Amino acid sequence: MDSRIFVAFVIGVNFTVACSDSVNADNVINDFEKTSGLSFQNCGTVDLGHCLETLEFVENRENVLQCLVNSSTTCLAARGKLSRATVEGDPIFYTYFIVPNDKGCSVVRFVDTTHDDFGKHKVLQYSCDKLTRSADSCPPLSECGTEPEEEYQ
After folding, report:
1. Of all residues in the chain, what percent carry a pLDDT higher than 70?
2. Which among 118, 120, 127 is positioned nearest to 148, based on CA atoms?
3. What is the tens place of the pLDDT at every residue in 75-114?
4. Alpha-carbon dihedral of residues 70, 75, 76, 78, nearest 10 degrees?
5. pLDDT above 90: percentage of residues in the chain
6. 108: which residues sit within 8 A by CB, 6+ positions away?
7. Which is the most buried residue in 2, 107, 121, 153, by most CB within 10 A?
8. Can you point out the beta strands (E) in the chain?
């Protein structure tokens, strides 16, 4: 066997094994949505890039953020997805759910680091009572819980 083919085969096998061991974030998020039994308004998706000085020029940014904040205020079932890039350019995805319940409303936030080459390759689930705008953070929404309620690996 040609040594180049063998090296390519070994790299391919290692890549496949490494990828198959990581959690599928879409499955985690879709399972949450299905088990909630709610119909969520889709606030949309926005890529915030590196969240630097060009943030105000990101197309559709205000629509998605305002939809999530308004839904949290009015306790309307909604979902929205934001992404931002790490310093190296790898995407981190944030999926927010506004969930009406018998106590009012809660916010569930999933943070997907499975595409971050230097990250932990996890999906973290947080929750809080309300979502607000925060100009000092990226994404520009209030932190939703400091400790994850669930970690999916």
Report:
1. 80
2. 127
3. 999 999 999 999 899 999 999 999 999 889 999 999 999 9
4. 70
5. 54
6. 32, 96, 97, 99, 125, 126, 127, 144
7. 107
8. 41-47, 78-85, 91-101, 104-112, 123-128, 150-152
Biggest CA pair distance of the chain: 66
C-alpha–C-alpha distance, residues 15 and 150, integer Å: 27
Hey, is 45 helix, strand or coil?
A: strand
Q: Where are the domains of the chain?
A: 23-152
Q: Are 137 and 55 in contact (CB under 8 A)?
A: no
Q: Per residue in 16-75, pLDDT tens?
A: 334 445 789 999 999 999 999 999 999 999 888 877 655 555 667 788 989 999 999 999
Kindly report the backbone phi and psi dihedral angles of residue 124, in degrees, each rounded to the nearest multiple of 5, phi listed first.
-110, 140
Contacts of 2 (CB under 8 A, 6+ apart): none
Cβ-contact 147, 127 below 8 angstroms? no
Q: What is the pLDDT of residue 143?
A: 79
pLDDT of residue 54: 53
Task: Identify which of 23, 29, 22, 24 has the alpha carbon closest to the alpha carbon of residue 125.
Answer: 29
Residue whose entry in the numeric block shows the structure tokens 């490494």:
18
